[in-house]
Amino acid sequence: MSIPLAYNLRNLVVRKTTTLMTALGIALTVAVLLAVLGLINGLRSTLSASGDPLHVIVLRKGSTSELTSVFQRTQEQDLKFKAGIARSAKGDPLVSVEIITLAELTSPSHPNGGNVTVRGMEPAGIEMRRNCQIVQGRWFQAGRRELVVGKETAKDYPDANIGHKIRFGKGDWDIVGVFEANGGAQSSEIWGDVNQVAGDYNRTDALSVALVQAADPVIVQALINDINNDQRLGMEAASEQEYYARQTQSGAPMEYTGIFVAIIMAIGSSFAAMNTMYAAVARRAREIGTLRVLGFSRGSILISFFLESLLLAVLGGLLGCLLVLPLNLTTTSIGNANISQTVFSFSVTPQTMAVGIVFAVFMGTIGGLFPARNASRKEILTALREV
User: Fold this and answer.
1) Which of 69, 96, 123, 381 has CB atoms 3.0–4.6 Å from 60's, for a disulfide?
2) Does residue 137 form part of some domain?
3) 189 and 217 in one domain?
4) For the segment 181-212, what is each residue's pLDDT rounded down to a tens digit?
């Protein structure tokens, strides 16, 4: 004969102060874990939305990011006429050679300044980035000191909006438009004409990266292999999706640190739950004896107390989910592999919350198993005599 679930629920309600304090400890642990997972999920979602399956990123061989890559313009012509590259309506190869640099901007939220990626590009670069659309103003014109800024950059830095000027390189640049990138990392960038940016940094013969569009998804890997195997080029290619996936490594230390902190807190929360359940067993000794007299077996008592611990843990897990929900879709930024800022939103999904609940149940299992075992092993007469 099993003990009714209502018995455990009543005990949790009667001991509401102890129940809430223990559940809150579990909730805080779950909230820390979910916050870290939500941050990493948001970063991954932003970077995965940045990659086009037809695009290939080409860097100098050995470079790990766009900012650290440098190659000569003479290599551009050899690259543009590789087999398998798509062509525009005018018949030109869809290749955009680009220069990447950083501009330091300040705002009330970044009083000490933040590094924002400035991307000098060719008109083909705009045409190829199909996930990017202008939402205010217009695109920059080639040959002019004009810029368009990503939506997230414009939001973070009030001075980086239409009608304002940004000073970097050799002078001021006019902001003529704001664009969005459908959740991609490009929303954290500033774009301008490649030749104007190159002139400001005395890099007329040097480029950072080439964005290449393949004619067909089937030949993307063949194009990558062709570029990588061309000893004359001395360049290294990867799909844009793979390149951005590697950028999530910048969030790895934060992820490991957060999980480590959550594990430490989980150990403390498990001991708190264990202490609560041991105290409950001690206070309810006569109650346990009475249950045995009524015919409930040792196994029923073990399951009942263990289940009570799990209910306490689930309550803590649900509270943890509620605590972290306000973070969902909140924007933040992190330095990526280019040491510039990438703006993204926390993403606390139902799957993430399910992980939090499972984590809470694990804590409840550790915290409730031994007290439940202790309760089930009490002798009837001994339990009835205890005060």
Assistant:
1) 69
2) yes
3) yes
4) 887 878 889 999 999 999 998 888 889 999 99
